[in-house]
Design goal:
About 10% of the residues lie in helices and about 40% in strands. α7 crosses α17. The two termini are about 25 Å apart.
C-alpha cells in the first residue's frame, strides 16, 4: 500500500452542539399560522388552556463536521371541519398539547465542513428593525478560527459573511509559548446581538463587534431593493488579554441580561487546587463582571463575587426581568447579581464557604457535573444531568431580587451533550450518546388537553416508563407537606408575590434524530436472510455490521446494513420481461369500496410487458392470469399503463396506440399518428417511446423526438389527442419529458408565479360521475431538448413558464433564463474561457444528453418538488425547488436585456414562474452506470407508499432507493438481486404496501421493505440494551454475537469498601472512623450471547455469563485453538477480565474459556477453563492454534491441552497496556495506550516471539490493523488526536536503523476518534475484469467506525490513479467554494498536539473533497480535467471504480 484513498461512507450523527435562531426567516415572518404571543399574557391570562405559540426559530445542529439547519414544522390541532385532511397521522404526534398535535423537524440545508465545529452560537439581530433582520450563525474551529454564516434566500443555503483567523506567525504571541490547549475556542453572544466574544488560547478573549442595523436613508442601494431581510453581521474585532486583568484560569464566561452596554461575566479560578488539597483549599473560584465598551475598547470591572467552590464550571445568564447569573457546580448552584446572591446545595458534599451559616439544601440529592441547561420561561431553567434526568430549577423572586432557588425532579430523558430552547414552547436535547429529541413543553396552569385515548408516557421520556395521566412535580422545600393526594397549586397574582406558582410542566416528545454513535466496537456478520449462492456485489448484501453504540441507559446494539435486502413474499420465473405496472379500478357498482380510503385501496390488475406480448393478472387476492378474458392489448409489448379519472379508468399505451378500459372492458381505442408527415414517408412512422401520466393528461414522447398529449374529459371518461405546439414549431428534438402534477390544497408552483391568483389548467374541483370531488391542482410539462435546455410548460395550453439554458451541465442553481438572463453566469465558478479552447471541449459536452426526467412532490403542505434527471453518461442530477421572490424593478431591467432570446415578451411575461429556482442536491453514495445508447427503458419509478415510505426507485444495473424524509432524499442501494429491469408498487391482501421487481435474470419477486429506520445514511435497526455495550464479536460457526455489557448498580458502601482491601496483605480497615451508610454507583459486567430471533425482528439474549464483583470484562473473542491431546482444532469463546479495585490493590485479571453449543432453541455455555493471572488481560487472539494473551505489560503465548493453557513463549512488550492486537499469519501487531505500535513475529521452531520493529514516537493508540495490498503489508494505527498513520517495515532501508524502526508511509487527519478497523477485501470493478492479475485479487480496504457515529474506509490505490486524483484534489482546493471558508488541506494535516512530530509523506487522497468534482458544472469539470492533463471521463471512471470497489455491506 503505497497510496490510499480516504472515503467517508456514513457521516457523524452524534450531535455535540445545537442552537436556535431565526436563520431562514425573521421573527416578523412568523412561520406557524398562530397569532404570536404577547409578553404581558404570560401570567395574567392563565384561564385559557391553550396558549398561542409564537414565531418558531430554526434549529442548528453540529455533529463533528456536519452542520445542519432545520425548520420546526408545527401541526395544529385539526378542527372537525378539517378532519379529512388530518387523516394522515401527524408525525411526532401523540397528545394534543397547547393546540399542537405534532411537530417535526424539516431539513433546510446540510453541509459537511472541512473542520470540526468546536462551539456554535447564534448572533441575534437585536430588537431593532421590528424583528425583520435575521440572525447569523457563529462557528469556531481549532485553534482560533471563527466563521460567521448567514442564510441567503437566493441560493437557499448558507453564505459566509465574515471570517476571523487568529492563527499563524502573526498571532503566535497569543499562545504565550503553549503548544497544546485542552479545549478549542468557545464563543458566546450578547443577548441583544451587539457583540460576541470568543475565548481562545485559554486566556485571550476576542471581541467581535456587530454591525449596527443601517436605518432609513443611509441604507446601501443594494440592500434597499431586494435584500430587505439582511442578517446580523460582524463589523470588527479586537483582542482582550485576560491575563492583564489578573485572571489566570478561565473556566467559562457569558453575557448577561439587563444592562445598557454588553456585560460579560467570567468564571475563573484565582488559585488552583487539587483533589488531595480540597479539605484545606476548596473555594477557589470567583466571578468577575466586565462592562464591554466596543468603541473605546475598554472593559471596566463592575462587580465580582469571591469564594465559589472549586468545582464550579458553568455559567447561565438569567433572562430579563430578573437578570444576574447562575454559577453551576458539581454539588451547588449559586445565583449572583450586582445586588443579591443566594445558593442551593445539592448533596452532602456541598459546604458553605466559611463553614458557619447553614446552606439551603434541595429535597433530594443529585450531582450536576457535566450537566447542560437552558431556560424554559424567564424564571424556570431545565437541567439535563449526567444520568439523563431532567431537573427544573425555579428562581423565586420579588421584583429583581431572587430570594431562593428551588430544584425539582422532572422526567428522565436521553443523556444530552447540548440543549437549546426553540421559541416559547419547544426545546431540543442534542445527544452524542443516544437519539436527539425535540420536546414540546407546556407550562399550563390549566389542565393540558390530552385527547381521551392517548396516554401520556411519563417517567422516562423514551417511553419505557409506566403511564400516568398527569405529571406531578414535588418542589424541594416545605411546600412538600402541603401537597396532599389532591394536587395543590398556588396562583400568584403577579410577579410581586413571593410564593410564585409552582408551574406545572407537561412534556411531549415530538420528533427525534437518529444517532448510531459512539461506535465503540463493531463486528461483521451474516444476515439471517443472506443468500449463500450470491457472488460479487450482490454477496455484500449478505452481511451486516453489528455495532456497540450509546452509553448507560442509551446503550444499544445497532445493526447497520448499507444495502436494502427486501423480504421476499413470493418469487416466480418470468424470462424476457420488459416492464410491469399495477393499476387500480374503482368499481361504481359496489358501494362498499367507497368507505376504503384511497391509500388503502387494493390494486386490481397487474400488467406485464414481455418481449412480444403482454400478460394481465388480477391482483385483488392472489395473482391469477386473466389475459384471455380482458380487452387489454395483449398482442405486443406495452409501453406504459396507469389510471385516469380518479382511478375509474385504466389507460394502456402501446407502441402504436392506446386503450381506455373500465375494469376489463375497453371503452375507447386510439391509434397514434406522428405529427411530422414527411418522416412517415421515410420510415415506418414514429412509435411511442416513453409515457408520463398525470390525471387527466397523458404525455407521449415519440421515437422521432416529437411529443403528443392525450387530454381526458372526466365527464365522458374519454380521451382526445392534441399535438402540442412545442413539437411543431421547433426543430429541437425532445429527448426526455415528464408531467408534473402539482397536487394539494394549495399547489406549490402557483406561489412562484408573479400573480398569485393565476391558476392554470383545471383549478376547481370537478364532480366525478360517482359524486366524489377530485382536487386536480395544476399540471405542468417538463421537457428537455437535445441541445441540453430544459423548459416547463403549463398544460394543456402549452405556454412556456420556465426555461433553463444547458440544464445538462448540472449547475448548482438554476433559474428562469427568460427573466434572469445574465444572472446564471454569476453562479458559474470559472470565467467563460475564450472560444477557440472552448471549441474542443464543446464537442465533449454535446454527446452528453438527458435521457430521462421526473419531477415529483409528495403530499404535504410544505413539501417542495424534486426534479431528477438522468444523463447519458449515467450521472444523476437531482434538484430541489425553492422560491426566491425577486422584486419587480430588479427583474424588469434584466427582462429587457434578455428579451432578444425570447419570443413575444408581452403575453408571456405575466404567467412565468419567475420566482421558481432549483438548487442541486449532492448525491453521495451511488455508483454510476452508463446507459447504452439505443436501449431506452424508464428507470425512475415514483412510489407514494411502500411500507409507509415515499420517494423514487431507480432501476438498472445498480438499483437505488431514494426515500424522502424531512425534505431530504436518503439514498439506499439494493444490490442483492443484481440489475433490476422493472419495478412497480403492489398493495393487496397478501402483500401490504409492497412492491414487485423483475431482475435481469427473469425472476419476478414480490417483496416488502424490512422494518428498519431508513431516515439515516444507512438503514439501521437499534436494539436497546439498558446498559453500556463495550465489545462485540461474531461467532461464525453458530451465527450469534457475544457482547460485553455493563449495567450501573447502586451498591452499599461497606460492600464496596471491603472489596478494596488487598486480600493477600490482609490489611484491615479501622471501622470506627468510616461512616458505612449510603450507596455507591458501580458497574456490573456480563457477557450476553445475543442473536436476532427473525429477520429484522427483536434480538434475544440466549445466555449470560456474569462476572464477579468489581471484575470488568475487557475483551471477548472467538478463538480457534489446537487441542494438543485430541490433535484437533476447537473453537472456543475467550474472555479477558480485570479486577478494578483501586490503586492500593495489585492488578489481577482472569482468562476464561467457554465452549458454546446450540441445543435446539437455546444455547448452552459451559466453562472449560479459567485462571487468574497478574495484570489485566486487555486483549487476546489466536495465533496458529495457540492463544496469545496481553497480560499487563507483557504478552504470553499459550498452547491448549484441552484442559489447561501452558505458556510457550512471552515477550516484555508493551511497556504499559495493550489496547489492540492483530494477527496475520505469524505476524503480530499490537498498539500500546501511550507508546505507539510494536511489530512482532512468532517462530515455531525455536518457539520464540521476536520484536521486529516498533515506532519510537509516543502515540496514544486507539485501534490498529494490518492493511494488505497485493504482497505489501502495512500497519495502520489511529490515535487520540483523530489521526491515522500507516507504517511499513523496511529492514533494508538505512533510515530504519537496521530494521528496528517502522517507517511512515502515510498520515492523515480524520477528524474523528477511530475505535475499530475491519479488513475487508475490495470488490472487483469493471477495470479489474479486463486485466486478469493475481495481485489485484489480494487487495483489502479498512472499514472503520468512530466515536462520532461515522463510518468510513481507507482503500489502496494504484499509483497512476493516485497521482491523477491528487492533482485533481490540489485543483479543487482553490476552485470549489468551501463552506465557512475552511481550507481542506489544513484540516487534513496531521495534528501532533504540540509533541515533536516529523511530517510523513502525503499519500492519502481525500474523497470528501473529490466528491465536489461531480457537483461542478460540466464546463468547469472539463476545464479542470484539461488543466491537470486528463479527461473528465477518466476522473469519473476512477471515482466510480473506487465507489464500486468499496460498496461493502
Amino acid at each position: 500500500m503505497s497510496f490510499a484513498a480516504f472515503k467517508m461512507m456514513h457521516w457523524a450523527t452524534g450531535i455535540e452542539h445545537c442552537a436556535s435562531g431565526f436563520i431562514t426567516h425573521s421573527s416578523a415572518d412568523s412561520t406557524p399560522k398562530i397569532p404570536p404571543i404577547t409578553a404581558d399574557d404570560i401570567d395574567s391570562d392563565w384561564t385559557t388552556s391553550t396558549k398561542p405559540i409564537g414565531p418558531v426559530p430554526n434549529l442548528i445542529t453540529a455533529a463533528a463536521n456536519v452542520l445542519e439547519v432545520y425548520i420546526v414544522r408545527i401541526q395544529e390541532e385539526a378542527s372537525p371541519s378539517l378532519a379529512h385532511k388530518a387523516a394522515a397521522e401527524p408525525k411526532g404526534g401523540g397528545a394534543v398539547l397547547a393546540g399542537v398535535s405534532g411537530a417535526s423537524l424539516e431539513l433546510v440545508c446540510h453541509y459537511r465542513l472541512h473542520g470540526n465545529v468546536e462551539s456554535l452560537e447564534v448572533l441575534p439581530n437585536g430588537a431593532t428593525d421590528g424583528g425583520r433582520r435575521r440572525d447569523s450563525i457563529i462557528l469556531t474551529f481549532r485553534d482560533a478560527k471563527i466563521s460567521v454564516l448567514e442564510f441567503d434566500e437566493s441560493i437557499c443555503g448558507l453564505r459566509t459573511s465574515s471570517m476571523h483567523c487568529f492563527e499563524g506567525s502573526d498571532w503566535v504571541h497569543l499562545r504565550r509559548g503553549r503548544e497544546f490547549f485542552p479545549r478549542g475556542p468557545l464563543v458566546k453572544v450578547d443577548p441583544l446581538g451587539r457583540c460576541a466574544a470568543v475565548l481562545a488560547y485559554g486566556l485571550q478573549m476576542i471581541v467581535l463587534k456587530a454591525a449596527e442595523a443601517s436605518t432609513g436613508l443611509t441604507a446601501p442601494a443594494e440592500d434597499s431593493t431586494f435584500r430587505t431581510a439582511a442578517a446580523s453581521r460582524i463589523e470588527s474585532s479586537y483582542i482582550v488579554g485576560l491575563r492583564d486583568l489578573d485572571m489566570k484560569h478561565v473556566k467559562d464566561f457569558i453575557f448577561i441580561h439587563g444592562y445598557i452596554e454588553p456585560v460579560v461575566v467570567i468564571l475563573h479560578e484565582h488559585e488552583l487546587t487539587w483533589a488531595g488539597r480540597v479539605a484545606w483549599k476548596h473555594h477557589t473560584c470567583m466571578v468577575s463582571a466586565l462592562s464591554v465598551n466596543t468603541t473605546l475598547k475598554q472593559h471596566p470591572l463592575i462587580w465580582s463575587a469571591m469564594n465559589l467552590p472549586h468545582d464550579a464550571y458553568k455559567l447561565l445568564a438569567v433572562p430579563s426581568p430578573i437578570g444576574g447569573v447562575l454559577v453551576i457546580g458539581a454539588n451547588t448552584i449559586h445565583y449572583h447579581s450586582q445586588s443579591a446572591s443566594c445558593h442551593l446545595g445539592l448533596n452532602n458534599f456541598a459546604v458553605p464557604a466559611d463553614g458557619s451559616q447553614e446552606m439551603p439544601r434541595s429535597g433530594f440529592t443529585t450531582e450536576l457535573d457535566a450537566a447542560t441547561a437552558t431556560w424554559l420561561t424567564n424564571d424556570v431553567a431545565v437541567f439535563s444531568s449526567k444520568s439523563g434526568e431532567l431537573l427544573l430549577l425555579t428562581l423565586v423572586y420579588d421584583g429583581r431580587v431572587v430570594q431562593r432557588l428551588e430544584l425539582m425532579k422532572s422526567r428522565a430523558s436521553v443523556l444530552t451533550s447540548d440543549i437549546t430552547t426553540i421559541g416559547s414552547s419547544f426545546f431540543f436535547l442534542g445527544s452524542r450518546l443516544g437519539d436527539s429529541l425535540l420536546v414540546q413543553y407546556y407550562s399550563g396552569v390549566g389542565a393540558p388537553t390530552l385527547s381521551p385515548g392517548v396516554k401520556e408516557e411519563v417517567g422516562d421520556i423514551e417511553s419505557d416508563a409506566p403511564s400516568m395521566k398527569r405529571l406531578r412535580r414535588s418542589p424541594s422545600d416545605a411546600l412538600q407537606d402541603l401537597i396532599t393526594s389532591e394536587e395543590l397549586t398556588f396562583y400568584g397574582t403577579g410577579p410581586n408575590n413571593a410564593q410564585i406558582a409552582q408551574k406545572n410542566f407537561t412534556f411531549a416528545v415530538r420528533d427525534s434524530l437518529l444517532n448510531i454513535g459512539p461506535l465503540k466496537d463493531f463486528s461483521y456478520g451474516l444476515r439471517i436472510n443472506g443468500d449463500p449462492n450470491a457472488t460479487g456485489v450482490a454477496k455484500q448484501s449478505n452481511y451486516e455490521l453489528v455495532c456497540c453504540s450509546g452509553h448507560g441507559k442509551n446503550g444499544a446494539l445497532t445493526v447497520l446494513q448499507k444495502s436494502i435486502r427486501p423480504d421476499t413474499v413470493t418469487q416466480e420465473s418470468l424470462p424476457g420481461c420488459k416492464g410491469i405496472w399495477t393499476v387500480y379500478h374503482k368499481n361504481l357498482r359496489s358501494d362498499s369500496s367507497k368507505g376504503v380510503a384511497d391509500k388503502d385501496e387494493y390494486h386490481a390488475y397487474l400488467i406485464i410487458s414481455l418481449e412480444n406480448r403482454t400478460m394481465v393478472l388480477q391482483t385483488a387476492n392472489n395473482l391469477e392470469e386473466v389475459t384471455e378474458n380482458v380487452d387489454y392489448y395483449v398482442q405486443g409489448t406495452t409501453v406504459s399503463a396507469g389510471n385516469l379519472f380518479g382511478r375509474r379508468r385504466v389507460i394502456q399505451v402501446f407502441a402504436r396506440g392506446a386503450r381506455i378500459l373500465d375494469g376489463a372492458f375497453m371503452t375507447q381505442d386510439l391509434s397514434l399518428k406522428s405529427s411530422n408527415t414527411e418522416m412517415n414517408a421515410a420510415s415506418d412512422g414514429a412509435t411511442v417511446s416513453s409515457v408520463s401520466i398525470a390525471d387527466p393528461y397523458v404525455l407521449l414522447r415519440m421515437t422521432d423526438g416529437s411529443i403528443q398529449l392525450l387530454v381526458g374529459d372526466p365527464y365522458t371518461c374519454s380521451v382526445s389527442v392534441i399535438n402540442p405546439p412545442v413539437s411543431e414549431n421547433s426543430d429541437k428534438l425532445v429527448l426526455a419529458c415528464t408531467l408534473y402534477h402539482d397536487k394539494g390544497s394549495e399547489p406549490w408552483i402557483r406561489k412562484t408565479s408573479t400573480d398569485a391568483w393565476l391558476s392554470t389548467g383545471i383549478g376547481e374541483a370537478i364532480d366525478g360521475a360517482d359524486g366524489s370531488t377530485h382536487d386536480h391542482g395544476d399540471v405542468y410539462c417538463v421537457v428537455c431538448y437535445d441541445n441540453g435546455d430544459l423548459e416547463i410548460f403549463d398544460v394543456p395550453n402549452f405556454n412556456s413558464v420556465f426555461l433553463v439554458d444547458k440544464f445538462v451541465s448540472g449547475r448548482s442553481h438554476i433559474l428562469d433564463t427568460f427573466f434572469h438572463g445574465a444572472a446564471n453566469n454569476h453562479i458559474n465558478l470559472t470565467n467563460n474561457y475564450s472560444e477557440d479552447i472552448g471549441q474542443v471541449r464543446k464537442e465533449a459536452t454535446h454527446n452528453i444528453k438527458v435521457v430521462e426526467l421526473s419531477m415529483q412532490r409528495w403530499d404535504s403542505e410544505h413539501n417542495r418538488p424534486f426534479l431528477l434527471g438522468i444523463l447519458s453518461d449515467g450521472t444523476i442530477l437531482c434538484y430541489h425547488a425553492y422560491i426566491y421572490e425577486v422584486s419587480d424593478n430588479a427583474s424588469k431591467t434584466e427582462g429587457v436585456i434578455s428579451s432578444q432570446n425570447s419570443v413575444n415578451l408581452s403575453n408571456t411575461n405575466a404567467s412565468r414562474l419567475r420566482n421558481l429556482r432549483f438548487v442541486r442536491v449532492p448525491l453521495d453514495t451511488y455508483a454510476k452506470e452508463e446507459t447504452p445508447s439505443g436501449v431506452r427503458s424508464q428507470r425512475i419509478t415514483v412510489f407514494k407508499n411502500v411500507g409507509g415510505l415515499q420517494g423514487f426507485f431507480l432501476s438498472g444495473s445498480r438499483p437505488m432507493w431514494f426515500m424522502m424524509f424531512r425534505e431530504r432524499l436518503r439514498m439506499h442501494p439494493q444490490g442483492c438481486d443484481g440489475p433490476i429491469v422493472a419495478f412497480t408498487v403492489l398493495h393487496n391482501v397478501n402483500c401490504n404496501h409492497g412492491f414487485i421487481c423483475i431482475t435481469s435474470e427473469g425472476a419476478l419477486k414480490i417483496c416488502q421493505l424490512p422494518a428498519l429506520s431508513y431516515d439515516n445514511y444507512w438503514p439501521v435497526q437499534k436494539i436497546g440494551l439498558k446498559g453500556t455495550p463495550h465489545q462485540v464479536t461474531y461467532f461464525a460457526e453458530k451465527n450469534f454475537y457475544p457482547v460485553i455489557v455493563s449495567v450501573p448498580v447502586l451498591k452499599p458502601l461497606n460492600q464496596v469498601l471491603s472489596s478494596l482491601v488487598d486480600q493477600e496483605v490482609g490489611n484491615q480497615f479501622e471501622h470506627d472512623n468510616i461512616n458505612m451508610e449510603g450507596t455507591y454507583p458501580t458497574e456490573e459486567f456480563e457477557v450476553r450471547i445475543m442473536e436476532p430471533e427473525k429477520i429484522n425482528g427483536p434480538w434475544q439474549t440466549r445466555a449470560t455469563i456474569p462476572m464477579q464483583s468489581s471484575e470488568h470484562a475487557l475483551t471477548v473473542r472467538v478463538v480457534t485453538l489446537f487441542n494438543t491431546t485430541a490433535q484437533r482444532n476447537e473453537t472456543l469463546l475467550a474472555i479477558g477480565t480485570a479486577y478494578v479495585q483501586g490503586e492500593d490493590v495489585a492488578a489481577r485479571g482472569r482468562i476464561l474459556l467457554y465452549s458454546v453449543e446450540r441445543i435446539s432453541d437455546s444455547i448452552q455455555v459451559t466453562e472449560v477453563y479459567s485462571k487468574e493471572l497478574k495484570g489485566a488481560i486487555s486483549a487476546l487472539a489466536s495465533l496458529q492454534g495457540h492463544l496469545l494473551l496481553a497480560s499487563g505489560p507483557k504478552i504470553i503465548l499459550h498452547k491448549w491441552t484441552g484442559s489447561e493453557l501452558n505458556g510457550v513463549a512471552f515477550h516484555d512488550v508493551p511497556p504499559l497496556y495493550v489496547v489492540s492486537l492483530n494477527i496475520v499469519k505469524n505476524f503480530i501487531l499490537l498498539g500500546d495506550i501511550h507508546k505507539s505500535i510494536y511489530f512482532l513475529s512468532w517462530k515455531e521452531q525455536g518457539s520464540q516471539l521476536n520484536l521486529l520493529a516498533k515506532d519510537f514516537g509516543s502515540l496514544d493508540c486507539l485501534a490498529t490493523e494490518f492493511l494488505i495490498d497485493g504482497t505489501t503489508l502495512s500497519l495502520t494505527v489511529s490515535d487520540d488526536q483523530k489521526n491515522v498513520q500507516i507504517f511499513y517495515y523496511a529492514p533494508k532501508a538505512s533510515e530504519s536503523w537496521k530494521g528496528q524502526k517502522l517507517l511512515s508511509r502515510a498520515e492523515f487527519h480524520v477528524g474523528a476518534h477511530i475505535t475499530k478497523f475491519l479488513r475487508l477485501q475490495l470488490l472487483p470493478t469493471s477495470a479489474d475484469r479486463i486485466i486478469p492479475g493475481s495481485d489485484k485479487t489480494n487487495r483489502f480496504a479498512l472499514l472503520f467506525g468512530t466515536l462520532e457515529g461515522s463510518i468510513g474506509c481507507i482503500a489502496p490505490l494504484e499509483e497512476l490513479t493516485f497521482r491523477r486524483l491528487q492533482s485533481l484534489q490540489k485543483k479543487l482546493v482553490n476552485s470549489v467554494c468551501h463552506v465557512a471558508g475552511l481550507n481542506p488541506r489544513s484540516f487534513r494535516h496531521f495534528h501532533s498536539n504540540g509533541k515533536a512530530h516529523r511530517p510523513g509523506p502525503d499519500s492519502i487522497v481525500d474523497c470528501e473533497l473529490l466528491v465536489h468534482f461531480e457537483m461542478l458544472a460540466l464546463e468547469d469539470q472539463l476545464e479542470i480535467a484539461n488543466q491537470i492533463g486528463t479527461t473528465r471521463m477518466q476522473i469519473m471512471s476512477n471515482l466510480n471504480d473506487l465507489s464500486v470497489a468499496t460498496s461493502f455491506l
